[in-house]
Amino acid sequence: MVEEHFTEEEKNKLPKHVAIIMDGNGRWAKSRKRPRLFGHRNGVENVRSVVNTAREIGVPYVTLYAFSAENQNRPEEEKSGLMRLLEEFLKRELNAMLRDGIRLRAIGDLDGLPEFANRIVRETIEKTKHNSDWNLTLALNYGSRQEVLDAIHAYSQSDQNIGQKPEWDDFSQHLQTRDLPDPDLIIRTSGEFRLSNFLLLQAAYSEIYVSPLHWPDFDRTAFIGALRDYVSRERRFGKTSEQLFSLQSS
Ligand code: IPE
Ligand code: IPE
Ligand code: MG
């Protein structure tokens, strides 16, 4: 049983930004002797419930790794199925996003998506851009290394940076995540302990939580369990425990 209630002290420690590597749809389907796309469909169903739980508990930024640059190497049928599911999801969720004040963003190379998927993503971003209560970011055709290379290119093109020693705060403004705080917590489902080219630099001090559950089974209770684990951790950012303790009590 996971205790659902967070005390005031715990609420103050909740993550601002949770990023999720939604893995295991294929294995979930396989264990049911169903095609991979059946797993993806159930994975999409789960997105709404986790996003709603994040809102209910008060996590303002959620980022979901939905399709990696490397996932372009999957069979055409699976890729086009995923893109259709993305279109369906965005069409279906638009009204709820407008009603609930959710702003959609995307990171990744959207131009590398099929035209219909690119269009609906851009339209939904545009339609929700005045929302500011909650922030849902989809990583689509996203690869962290490419993002960093693009940022280096953009940074070096700017006249004022020529010959300057880069500062992280300036450089990070060229990453696609410039409007997002760094993820406090990265959750990966399906038991795999790797980042798979996701937010490599932004994850410098992220807490990582790996759940054995496949993404379609990672429900409200499992998400709350991850948050509960997170609030129990001590983030030291290089300091000693004693330093943090004396800061707290002063
Ligand atoms: C995650 O599930 C979804 C995407 C990568 C699009 P997978 O499709 O990777 O599922 P497994 O890892 O094969 O079980
Ligand atoms: C990472 O999952 C990408 C997404 C969840 C979208 P993968 O299933 O593609 O990762 P690897 O290949 O197991 O590292
Ligand atoms: Mg996988």
In short, what is this structure?
By secondary structure, the chain is an alpha/beta fold. The chain has helices spanning 8-13, 25-30, 36-57, 76-100, 115-127, 144-157, 168-171, 220-231, 241-249; strands at residues 17-21, 61-68, 102-107, 134-142, 185-188, 207-210. Strands 3-4-2-1-5-6 form a 6-stranded parallel β-sheet, with helices on both faces.
Query: How are strands sequenced across the largest beta sheet?
Result: 3-4-2-1-5-6
* CATH hierarchy, class: Alpha Beta
Helix and strand sequence: HEHHEHEHEHHEEHH
Q: Domains counted in the coordinates: how many?
A: 1
Here the CATH topology equals Undecaprenyl pyrophosphate synthetase
Fraction of residues in helix: 40-55%
Classified in CATH, the superfamily is Decaprenyl diphosphate synthase-like
**Quick check: average pLDDT?**
96
As residue ranges, the low-confidence spans are: none
Total strands: the figure is 6
Number of helices: 9
The CATH architecture name reads 3-Layer(aba) Sandwich
Report strand %.
Answer: 5-15%
Output the structural class.
Answer: alpha/beta
- How does the major sheet shape up? 6 strands, parallel
Subunit organisation of the chains = single chain
Q: Quote the distance from N terminus to C terminus.
A: 36 Å
Descriptive account of the structure:
The mean pLDDT is 96. The protein is of the alpha/beta class and 250 residues long. The chain has a six-stranded parallel sheet with strand order 3-4-2-1-5-6, sandwiched between helices. It contains nine helices and six strands, in the order H-E-H-H-E-H-E-H-E-H-H-E-E-H-H. Helix 3 (36-57) runs parallel beside helix 4 and helix 4 (76-100) runs parallel beside helix 5 (115-127). The two termini are 36 Å apart. It binds 3-methylbut-3-enyl trihydrogen diphosphate (IPE) (2 copies) and magnesium ion.
